[in-house]
Prior knowledge:
The longest helix is centred in the first third of the chain and has 15 residues. The strands form two sheets. A four-stranded antiparallel beta sheet has the order 5-4-3-6. Strands 1-2 form a two-stranded parallel sheet. Helix content is 32%, strand content 17%. It has one domain: C8orf32 fold. The protein has eight helices and six strands. The C terminus is likely disordered. The chain is an alpha+beta fold.
Amino acid sequence: xxxxxxxxxxxxxxxxxxxxxxxxxxxxxxxxxxxxxxxxxxxxxxxxxxxxxxxxxxxxxxxxxxxxxxxxxxxxxxxxxxxxxxxxxxxxxxxxxxxxxxxxxxxxxxxxxxxxxxxxxxxxxxxxxxxxxxxxxxxxxxxxxxxxxxxxxxxxxxxxxxxxxxxxxxxxxxxxxxxxxxxxxxxxxxxxxxxxxxxxxxxxxxxxxxxxxxxxxxxxxxxxxxxxxxxxxxxxxxxxx
Length: 241
């Protein structure tokens, strides 16, 4: 197989791999790792669990999709988390790109279903496509381990060799995730396409901050936000970890 183009190791506006925070995060995660497989597995676990999955954090601001911003906030939905994993893999010398698919998620809260106009179809679910040992593998770091425990779903594990996508079933056999449409892979984030599809599928409310929501997706630190602070935007320093 031909080697991937050098562009898949390069920085972009979204994949800001030269940012001090991105480089520090990468160096800490891969410290002591000897192979690309081990580096990728460690980076995957770090992104999965150190950035809380927050489906209510969809933003129209391109700056909110930069890898460095995702690290700063410590919470994001699947697309920015995939951006971060792709960026740190490039920073570690692993060629990486972004992939997207429409998925049907059978685990939802009433609040999230309402925000999605009653749908359980998540368009443009993000994952990373990584070039390791001469072939491409897919990995989605979306759901952090603590959140998985709340829903009774085992966390997705990645060994750097096999695809690591969302589980089709929960631990008790209940249907969980179904991939229904492949959106392809991209060298950089196609943000305009993603936001346009979100508006088309769910209406403008999906890309406008609903404010903090108290349900299973709520990060523990956010539960205790004072009532008079609940109108602050999601990118307010009050909500930063």
